[in-house]
Amino acid sequence: MCLELEKRYQLKFLELGTDEDHVHFLVQSVPSYSVTKLVTLIKSITASEIFRLCPHVKKQLWGGEFWSDGYFANTVGRHGDEHTIRNY
Asked: Is the pTM higher than 0.90?
């Protein structure tokens, strides 16, 4: 799914990882996409595709939502770099 998103939108998934109950994405994108737009895009399209490919998943989830409402995002800038974010 992430590779297909890269083809359709101006973004690149540099790293993907999972923790106990959440997923980490290290994404590179154009400055015209806000962080909120990127998160919304990734969450909405991946959830739709997972439900399309595995309809039983939606029935197993409380409320039928794949992603929680919240997220944490950080950007590379003066006080951080890709290496620091990747280590996190």
From this structure: no
